[in-house]
Amino acid sequence: MSGGSPHGHGSEKKVIEQIHAAPGTEILFDDSDNGSISERLHQMKHRETGDGRMLLVPQPSMDDPNDPLNWSTTKKSLTFFNGCWFAFMGAITGPIMAAGMMQLSVTFGKSLQELTYANGACLINQGVWNFVWMPFAVKYGRRPIYIFSNLLMAIACVWLAVASIKTYTAFLVGRAFLGAFQAPIESIVPSTVTDMFFLHNRGELIAIYGLSVLGGNELGPMFSGFIVQALGMNWAFWVVAMFVGASLISMFFFMPETKFCGPRPDPFQPTTVNADKDQVLVQKSSAVPKKTFVQELKFWNSGDPDVNLLHVFLRPFVLLAYPTVLWSCCIYGMALSWNVILGASVAQLFAPHPYGFNSSDQGLFFLSPFIGSLFGVFFSGPGGDWIATFFTKRNNGVREPEMRLPTCLLAAFFTFFGALWFGLSYEHQMNWEMPVVGAGVLSIGSQMGTTLGMNYALDCHKEVKNFPFQLGPDSYSALANRFHF
Q1: Taking phi first (over 0 means left), then psi (-120 to 50 degrees means alpha), and beta for anything else, what does residue 232 get?
Q2: Is the CB of residue 336 less than 8 Å from the CB of residue 446?
Q3: Cα(404)–Cα(218) distance, rounded to whole angstroms?
């Protein structure tokens, strides 16, 4: 008989409910051997890959061209580039003063220890103000936050360019404001990635985003070192202000809103079965006109009526009660803190005898951590995705967030070995090559830790994409700036 079996449909419902009930568990590959759910899976949008028939998670809207999941590859790539460039420039503004610490000390008549207060003020505000920016990104969308944050960041850089040759108080206040204005770099780009891309793309893209943040921390001091050596510390801020301004222009024209409020098909919702024909009836949505380029330039709206701002403000504190989120924050924070501490320490460690690094030498020091970050991106991005896909195939096509975690062993090794190498080589005053290489090895683990921590949390809980991860590492790094000597 062609009619569906009641027991078969009951089995299908039970299997799907079991998969859907576990947070972060997704069916990623259509396993044709699993007859109880294969019919349902064949109705879903998918992509043919070398590993098999990969299902698109989440499922894009059926015929809405304004759904970011349905955008062209070019549009997605340009939007992602703008987000990463925003994060890169924001990350540069933090450690940019690392190569000019000695010059600022002379200008202000302050000790290097006192100058670290300015860096600490920036870091603390960056973490705290994430709790202010991100609820508005959830309510009103990503685009207004990108634009206003970029604009205010450019103004703060101009302020610091003037203050760096004036008074320490003005400089300290400017750094505090800069931290508040650039805070979204740590949270809004992961939101944009999950808005536009599918689950199987996220590992590599989050790794690239992580490189833009750590790369800014590492390349910022290197670029500023040459500028400080040739033109002075104030010009380092002028140059950054120019590039942030260019980023603002690019974002205004080529950074459309990625928050999508329209309906998307839910493959786990019950379907209607015709017993005579045994077909699944799929509800079609009406065609939606595509927004024009001019319409996409709008950067403000009345907000999502389904979002309660108070609830969104409180959500991070609720999420911290989840062990998976708390663990991810600890991994992310400890990994990123190593990188931030290096930026605050190089001048104090390598400017005095026996190394005697000048401003450009201190900047070039960060080339080694940047190279290490490139290796970290490969291991945690494509490498982590490959490992997760391998275990997914062995699990009959069902993806679990924990399938990324084996890569953590490699991250822990590089972090421990790199920190030991750097610390011992400096303690025994070895040739400058030894601590420099040690910092590069440490950066491999740091890059992997930040990527894996964020990816795991995003895989476990969809609502974590708007979570302000940065409070933990910024607080830790600010304290480290104060007490590392």
Answers
A1: left
A2: yes
A3: 26
User: CA nearest 303: which of 316, 290, 312, 314?
Assistant: 312
CB 149 within 8 A of CB 134: no
Look at 301 and 208; give whichever has higher pLDDT.
208
Segment 209-247, tens digit of pLDDT: 989 988 888 888 888 888 888 898 999 999 999 999 999
DSSP string covering 115-171: HHHHHHHHHHHHHHTHHHHHHHHHHH-HHHHHHHHHHHHHHHHHHHHHHTTS-HHHH
Give the tens place of pLDDT for each residue, 419-459: 999 999 999 999 999 999 999 999 999 999 988 888 888 88
Residues 284-332 pLDDT 10s? 445 788 999 999 998 888 888 888 888 888 887 887 788 888 888 888 8
Structure tokens of 216?
């800014």
Average pLDDT of the chain to the nearest whole number: 82
**Residue whose structure tokens are 């302000």:** 468
Where b means 16+ CB within 10 Å and e means fewer, 212-229 reads: bbbbbbbbbbbbbbebbb
Residue 2's Cα: distance from chain center in Å? 50
The neighbour count for residue 166, using CB atoms within 10 Å, is 13
Whether 283 and 174 have beta carbons less than 8 Å apart is answered as no
Residue, of 268 and 56, whose pLDDT is higher: 56
DSSP for residue 281: E
Q: 354 in the Ramachandran plot: left (φ > 0), alpha (ψ -120 to 50) or beta?
A: alpha
Pairwise CA distance, residues 469 & 191, whole Å: 12
Question: What percent of the chain stands above pLDDT 70?
Answer: 81
Those residues whose C-beta lies under 8 Å from the C-beta of residue 275, and which sit 6 or more positions away, are 3, 4
What's the CA gap between 285 and 296, in Å, rounded? 22
Q: How far is residue 329's CA from residue 255's CA, in Å, rounded to a whole number?
A: 28
In angstroms, rounded to a whole number, what is the distance separating the alpha carbons of residues 449 and 452? 5
Beta carbons of 397 and 467 less than 8 angstroms apart: no
Question: How far is Cα 215 from Cα 325, in angstroms, rounded to an integer?
Answer: 25
With b for 16 or more beta-carbon neighbours within 10 A and e for fewer, the 335-372 pattern comes to: bbbbbbebbbbbbbbbbeeebebebbbbbbbbbbbbeb
Residue 21 CB neighbours (<10 A): 9
Domains of the chain by start residue, with CATH: 68-260+304-465 (1.20.1250.20)
Q: Is the pTM of this model over 0.70?
A: yes
Q: What is the reported pLDDT for 252?
A: 95
The pLDDT of 145-158, averaged and rounded, is: 96
Name the 3-class secondary structure at 261. Answer: coil
